[in-house]
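>> received
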Amino acid sequence: MLELIKASLGVGQIYKHGKDSIQLRVSSVKDLLVIIDHFDKYPLITQKLADYLLFKRVFELMNRKEHLTSEGLIRIIAIRASMNNGLSPELKAAFPNIIPAPRPLIESTEIKDSNWLAGFIEGEGCFLVAIQKSTTKTGLGVSLRFTLTQHSRDEALLKSLVNYLGCGRYYLVSGRDEGYFIVSSFSDIYEKIIPFFEKYPLVGSKRQDYFNFCKVAELIKAKAHLTKDGLEEIKQIKSGMNRGRDLHKTWGL
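>> returned
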């Protein structure tokens, strides 16, 4: 996926980032201009747009060499205090009197392109196969869940998906700053979610989870999940999805 993004943008280098992750990093002024031009042409619609606008402001200050002055540096640190998770403990200790710059207010959350949504889901969505105790002959029931996760500040965007996709619901986790768009009705998954990805396919590693998700959907459609052999096949498929993690237990869904 990162190689595709790098090839599309024509800038950046890919580095290993931690034990199980890699990142595409763009740092030169010339290459950052390509990134800024891209996001000016194709604006973000989540609250991350505010971080981008602040990032662009810092870039412009640095491009004017204002970061080389004490006043410019203070302005940049004040902007940094309003980005992402704010200042690190070290920066807070070094600049205790910094007043965070005003964070841009992002009100527009309208999804204008289904290709954008497919890309967004590539990063933030999840295809889940849940297996729970039931009153069936096998003693276990199988269900499918499609989820999309964001910080609670993007509640309006996730709620808009209910109308955009014609299914699902919004779920806010109590005591946490996380919200989920969830589709758990089998008919909605089979008739709306799967057709959406057939029309707007995923291109990253999550595509394999989607394919496995579809396999289970077909088994459920054929009522194979009600048989011992079908259930074992579904368990085998599930074991290879989402790195084998039982995310529905983690989320309490």
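>> The beta strands are 13-16, 22-25, 125-133, 140-151, 169-172, 178-183.
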